[in-house]
Write a structure and sequence with these properties.
Distance between the termini: 26 Å
Order of helices and strands: EEEHEHHHHEEEEHEHEHEHHH
Strand content: 15-25%
Strand order of the largest sheet: 5-11-8-7-6-9-10
Shape: elongated
Structural class: alpha/beta
Number of helices: 11
Oligomer: single chain
C-alpha cells in the first residue's frame, strides 16, 4: 500500500478505508468509484455504507460484500439480503445474495471443520458461525453448561496460577470471583465473595485476604468504577480494568463450556449456580445483549476469563475471516 492506502490492480487504483466508526465516511467523500468490495459488512457503520453507495457512481459500478450473519433484523439483511432477486426498471438484476455454510468452504480441511463444529457453542453461535443463519439471540445464554459435567465437589490439586474478576455492587450484589488455571489450560471457579451494601474498604479487605492466600493475584475489575480500582491499587493490589466487550466475552465463556475447559466448585459458588440458569438473552433487542438483572456472578466470570485467557482472540478473529 502507498502512504495514502492505495494500490494498483489490473490497471485500477484500489483505495482502502476503515468503516466501523461514526466519522469513517468523511475520508471517503469526494471521489468517483467504479466498485466497492466490503469485508464483514454488518460491522460497517451505517453512515459509511451510505457514503460508499454515493461514491459508486462510475459507469458499470459493481458492489460486492461478504459477512458472517448477525440478527434477523439487521439492516443489511432487511434492506439488501432479503431483497435478493430485486431488479431495476429496465429488468437488470439489482441485488443477488448467496448463502454459505462452513461446509461450503473448500479451502478448509474436514478435520478442521469438525474441530470447529465441536468447539462452537450451541444456540445462536452455532447457527450463525457454522450454518450461516441470521437468527436471533434467545433463551439461556450458556446452553452447553451441564451440572453433571462442569460442577465439581472439590478444588483441583494441580493449579498453576490464580486470577480474579470483580463486579462492583452496592444496592445489587458485588462479587469477587477467584479462578485457578491448571497445567492443561482448564479454568476453575474456586470461590466467590458476594455481598450488598458494603464499602470499598470492605471490598479492599476481602481482596487483600485473597491476595495473601494467593500471592501475586491479578484482579480484573469492572472498568465502570475507576475510583474503586484506584482504591484497591492504593492497597498494593494488582488491579486491571477488565475487558468489557460483552458479547465477545460471553462467546469466550461459552466456548470454555463447550470445550469442557471450565469447572465450578459447587459449595463455594452458590450464587453463581443460581444465576446461570436465569442468565438469558434480552428478547426483541436491537442488538445481542443479556438481560441486565441478577447477573453479577456472570459479569465477574466474563471479566476474569475473557481478560485473562481471551488474549488469543486476535487469532480467532483472523481464522473467522476464512469461515
Amino acid at each position: 500500500l502507498s502512504q495514502s492506502n492505495e494500490f494498483q490492480m489490473f490497471g485500477n487504483t484500489v483505495s482502502c478505508f476503515g468503516s466501523a466508526n461514526i466519522d469513517s465516511y468523511k475520508v471517503i467523500k469526494g471521489f468517483t468509484a467504479h466498485g466497492w468490495l466490503a469485508n464483514e459488512i454488518t460491522e460497517h457503520h451505517a453512515a459509511t455504507v451510505d457514503q460508499c453507495f454515493k461514491r459508486c457512481s462510475g459507469d458499470g459500478a459493481r458492489i460486492f460484500w461478504d459477512t458472517n450473519p448477525a440478527g434477523p433484523d439487521h439492516p443489511i439483511k432487511a434492506n439488501y439480503i432479503d431483497k435478493d432477486g430485486d431488479r431495476l426498471s429496465d429488468g437488470r438484476l439489482h441485488i443477488k445474495s448467496w448463502h454459505f455454510t462452513l461446509d461450503d468452504n473448500a479451502f478448509l480441511s474436514d478435520e478442521y471443520k469438525e474441530s470447529l463444529k465441536k468447539s462452537t457453542p450451541s444456540g445462536m453461535f452455532y447457527d450463525r458461525d457454522i450454518n450461516g443463519l441470521w437468527v436471533a439471540a434467545e433463551g439461556m445464554i450458556y446452553r452447553d453448561f451441564d451440572l453433571g459435567v462442569h460442577v465439581i465437589d472439590v478444588e483441583p490439586g494441580n493449579l498453576k496460577e490464580y486470577f480474579a474478576g470483580i463486579d462492583w455492587g452496592f444496592e445489587h450484589n458485588g462479587v469477587i470471583a477467584l479462578y485457578g488455571l491448571d497445567h492443561d489450560g482448564n479454568a476453575c471457579r474456586l470461590r466467590e465473595i458476594v455481598a450488598k451494601q458494603q464499602s470499598i474498604d470492605w471490598w479492599a479487605h476481602e481482596a487483600m485476604e485473597l491476595n495473601n492466600t494467593h500471592h501475586g493475584l491479578t484482579f480484573y475489575a469492572d472498568p465502570a468504577r475507576p475510583d474503586h480500582i484506584a482504591a484497591l491499587r492504593n492497597k498494593g493490589l494488582v488491579v486491571r480494568e477488565a475487558e468489557n466487550s460483552v458479547v465477545e466475552g460471553i462467546t469466550f465463556v461459552a466456548e470454555c463450556f463447550k470445550k469442557r475447559r471450565l469447572y465450578i466448585v459447587q459449595q463455594h459458588n452458590r450464587n453463581y449456580l443460581r444465576e446461570i440458569y436465569n442468565y438469558r438473552w434480552k428478547e426483541n433487542a436491537a442488538k445481542e445483549e443479556p438481560i441486565k438483572m441478577d447477573d453479577d456472578s456472570m459479569d465477574s466470570e466474563r471479566y476474569a476469563l475473557y481478560s485473562h485467557l481471551g488474549r488469543s482472540r486476535e487469532v480467532r478473529a483472523t481464522i473467522s475471516l476464512y469461515r
